[in-house]
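STRUCTURE:
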């Protein structure tokens, strides 16, 4: 069907239709062409008849109605005639009728709207196209609204100049409707999605923009108006017209324009506000960074949990809420460990020389600096549960630094019936990495190591390497920082622990990062200067 080009012609008057016999459904335009809103017949300005098939709808259950202005909506009779929007009787009730057409322009169905905003469809719903699509075939720009009232409002406010249509079933079925009319929608150079200014409308607009060809869709912003008709009722056509031409091309997630970086490009980030408890480690890494994943790696019995507990205690005492998911111990054991650090007493080993009141007092004093939250896992190693709790700790409780100790337990709990452990680890690490980026947290991830080749294990002085991380290279690849913890190779029983930075995405500096000594009585792992030069550390 040939389209009516409203850019070059204007409505003049209503005329009879020779095809269906209607007395006033025909509309004559300034260039001489006539279009019938009853049967879809079209005749050109030169008098040549270009007709569509006769209207089958009137005799197939569609409801007769009359064209009239919708005063409460500020819609004129002319606009309603143009789009085929009438008022009639349905089941004894006065209703509004939006007539929908098939791809050949023939009326096939009607959306019935009651005064209580209840909707129903009469006719052949399967053949429905976009409301108003019979008026325009292609062009430079197409505006798509959620509903018929909004589409007519937009069209009226810009004097029917630019093609404007609406979805048949609102935001909830927007994507399906546009894909069903894919050829029509993509025949335009640009598509402006002017959906309702609410959460469902915004989400639907993004979903539709990503379903259609890249670069086709723009999303309009109606400012303070909830929809286009509200703008019409308030006499604010300017906002709608500006929204059409100022609509922004949808940019998928992950693509950042240079213009968006202008205000932050000069802001330095060399120093993190969150530090490690050890000075030499801070010198190399420049601190713990939000939006980063830190892997702590060491062999069994070397002291990973002790190291992590010192780290998390330091963060908490620095005033940052923390979350701890210690999958290998009870929340009581974790809490005792933290309080013990605050008291400089290893109360997790023995509380015989410490009163209960003193422990409770220390517990209350420790919490003054910052709150901490623990995950009572009850043996659960379900990845969805872990991720959900990480999100809750961050979003609801404000935790910026969260520790998961350790990933090996998580892997073991998920390997039942799984043949490819490497693939499983890849999936786990990818999932955790996505959450770190999305939440902007620092996730401390503890990982066990495979036993090195040879007679000497890690407790005997064997040194940590990235290749020993259990299960997959993804544990190292997706981490921003990897820190290894070694025993003193020259004296494995000395209680000394040697820190080595194995990966450092931020500065690139790796290597020895200091020495620690464990005190059994205090339970503390403190920095020592026994090595005058880092080069002296026996790695």
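SEQUENCE:
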């Amino acid at each position: 069907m040939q389209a009516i080009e409203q850019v070059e012609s204007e409505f003049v008057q209503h005329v009879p239709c020779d095809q269906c016999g209607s007395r006033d459904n025909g509309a004559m335009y300034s260039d001489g062409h006539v279009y019938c809103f009853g049967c879809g017949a079209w005749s050109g300005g030169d008098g040549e008849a270009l007709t569509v098939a006769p209207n089958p709808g009137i005799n197939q259950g569609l409801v007769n109605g009359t064209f009239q202005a919708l005063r409460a909506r500020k819609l004129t009779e002319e606009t309603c005639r143009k789009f085929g929007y009438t008022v009639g009787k349905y089941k004894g009730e006065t209703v509004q009728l939006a007539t929908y057409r098939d791809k050949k322009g023939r009326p096939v169905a009607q959306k019935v709207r009651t005064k209580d905003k209840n909707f129903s469809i009469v006719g052949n719903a399967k053949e429905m196209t976009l409301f108003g699509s019979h008026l325009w075939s292609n062009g430079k720009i197409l505006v798509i609204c959620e509903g018929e009232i909004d589409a007519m409002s937009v069209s009226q406010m810009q004097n029917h100049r630019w093609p404007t249509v609406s979805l048949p079933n609102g935001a909830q079925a927007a994507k399906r409707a546009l894909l069903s009319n894919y050829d029509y929608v993509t025949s335009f150079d640009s598509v402006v999605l002017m959906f309702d200014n609410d959460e469902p409308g915004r989400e639907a607009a993004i979903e539709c923009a990503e379903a259609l060809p890249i670069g086709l869709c723009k999303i309009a912003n109606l400012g303070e108006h909830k929809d286009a008709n509200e703008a019409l009722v308030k006499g604010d056509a300017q906002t709608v017209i500006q929204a059409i031409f100022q609509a922004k091309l949808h940019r998928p997630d992950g693509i950042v324009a240079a213009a968006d970086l202008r205000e932050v490009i000069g802001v330095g980030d060399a120093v993190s506000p969150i530090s490690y408890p050890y000075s030499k480690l801070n010198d190399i890494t420049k601190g713990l960074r939000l939006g980063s994943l830190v892997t702590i790696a060491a062999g069994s019995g070397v002291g990973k949990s002790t190291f992590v507990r010192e780290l998390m205690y330091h963060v908490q005492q620095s005033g940052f809420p923390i979350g701890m998911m210690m999958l290998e111990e009870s929340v009581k054991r974790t809490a005792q460990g933290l309080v013990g650090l605050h008291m400089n007493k290893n109360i997790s080993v023995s509380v015989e020389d410490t009163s209960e009141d003193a422990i409770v007092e220390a517990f209350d004093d420790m919490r003054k600096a910052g709150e901490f939250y623990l995950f009572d896992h009850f043996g659960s190693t379900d990845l969805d549960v872990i991720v959900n709790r990480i999100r809750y700790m961050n979003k609801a409780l404000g935790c910026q630094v969260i520790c998961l100790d350790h990933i090996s337990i998580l892997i073991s709990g998920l390997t039942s019936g799984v043949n490819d452990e490497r693939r499983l680890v890849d999936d786990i690490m990818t999932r955790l990495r996505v959450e770190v980026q999305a939440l902007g947290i620092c996730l401390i991830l503890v990982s066990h190591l495979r036993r090195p080749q040879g007679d000497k294990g890690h407790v005997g002085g064997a040194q940590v390497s990235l290749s020993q991380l259990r299960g997959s290279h993804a544990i190292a690849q997706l981490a921003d920082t990897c820190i290894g913890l070694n025993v003193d190779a020259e004296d494995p029983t000395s209680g000394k622990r040697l820190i080595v930075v194995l990966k450092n995405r931020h500065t690139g500096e790796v290597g020895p990062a200091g020495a620690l000594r464990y005190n059994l009585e205090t339970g503390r792992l403190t920095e020592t200067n026994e090595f005058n030069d880092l080069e002296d550390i026996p790695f």
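REMARK: Residues 1-55 form a domain with the N-terminal domain of TfIIb fold (CATH 2.20.25.10).
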